[in-house]
Fold:
Amino acid sequence: MKKNKMRLLAGALAVTLLLGGCRIGGKEIVITGGLGSQDVCKIGGTSCKLTEARVYLANYQNIYGKSYGIDLWEQNFQREELTKYIKEIALSQMSKVVCMDLLAKERGITLSGEEKKEIRAAAAEYYQSLTDAELDYTKASESDIVSMYEDYVLADKVYRSLTKGVDAEVSDDEARIMEAMQIFVKGRKKSKEVEKKLKEGEDFAAVASNYNMKPEIEITFGRGVLPKEVEEAAFELENEEISDGIKTEDGFYFIKCINKFNEALTDDNKSNIVAAREKAAFDDVYEEFVSGLSSKLNEEVWDDVTLLTDGSIRTDSFFQVIEDAMD
Structure:
């Protein structure tokens, strides 16, 4: 199993519910108090347990609660908003893992004996890393961690099965990233003024500082970012070449090419394009599947779950341990 695939999955898992609030596949979760005291939510007959939620929350509060070496909890940085954000991510992650495991069952996808062996070793490693305070907060046993890891790895296996046929070949032209400067103005009169100054040899950056109506003068872009007519003209430029005024629905663009092909950023963009293709292939199947699932959120239990941010909870390696183990 490839670690980059698992990390891609982790990113995908963390957005679907978060972007739409408490929704699964565009379907709103029914809020109810009719579930058990240890059930956070139930999807398609499968429950997300309170212990699982606390493990996710304990890790996410440290993963997302620290930025550039700063502990946001110690700084009291928008604590209420940060807590809400972390709880939404945790609910999103747990819910989508459940959905994907249900999809695995439908498609007959299971874990191999070797995968289960690696999972047990990873669970033992993570469990042994937990302090007494973290064990008391999560109430997790080693078998709980094994079960969570099995669900997580199975979800990743489903993702890979749905995306294995995606074309991973991306041409330099499709992924090309260009560095440039821009001037954008509205109205033909302003356009003529800019055009005259540039033809007279005035410095592009100086003209841009006086006329550009966009937030930025220096831009880095690939295909699909700028209006089509601007993109087509810009990608024909050589280094240091300046375009004529390019008319669009919103106004006029002038582009100066600084670097027509940034090789490093282009290579990175190839990965982004493949990831987008994979997500599209995954979403086609996943969204249709989850549209038929019932879902319930135990509002009373979920609202009562709190984060412990007094410094006693430090764990942040839950996901990293399993990703390293399955590399």
Remarks:
- The CA atoms of residues 181 and 218 lie 4 Å apart.
- The radius of gyration is 25 Å.
- The longest strand covers residues 178-185.
